[in-house]
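Form 7-S
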Amino acid sequence: MATDPKALKIEAARAALEHVEDGMKLGLGSGSTAEEFVRLLGEKVAAGLNVVGVPSSSRTEALAREAGIPLTTLDEEPRLDLTIDGADEIGPGLALVKGGGGALLREKIVAAASGKMIVIADESKVVETLGAFPLPIEVNKFGLRATVIAIEDAGRRFALTGEVKLRMAGDKPFVTDGGHFIVDASFGRIPATKAFADELNMIPGVVEHGLFIGLASLALVAAEGGVRVIDGKN
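Output:
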């Protein structure tokens, strides 16, 4: 099996296709690995597979349309069968860090509306403790500085320190599909992920954060020796 990152992403995406059944309503994730899945799914649709997808970002929507995948919305189909998405980190119990691409709010809404979420990634994304990847936090534009201070204060209560930095796109702040800003919190390792996630949820200016806990039911992780299945117990 090839070991370059793109090849591993394709292998993980191909393994996820085995979980897709005719007639399914699918959540389509965002990011480079999820995009490989969308491309492969498009080939299956062209060959006769009958599915409908709900994209989690404008970029995924454009790619899915290009691939010929029929699309709908959560307003039209509020309950999905399966979401396939990537992750920036996969920790114990299938706790995830997501949002490196900036679509975390919509990704979490789509995942929560699904009966099952499968994460696809290469082996570099599997970690013992979440937090080496800066934690993306989607915030309201209003009161930005006050929200950043509240996030920093929350971090200190968990002995987490580090820069909380506004994400930029060139010389302007990055703006999500929902019209919000993102701050990336370089807190380092976050042992108490559930408790810290709850703490962030209490901050009024925080729209959503990149800690995905209790949403994924399976991870398909591609490595040199093949695709490993992680079910939250191993």
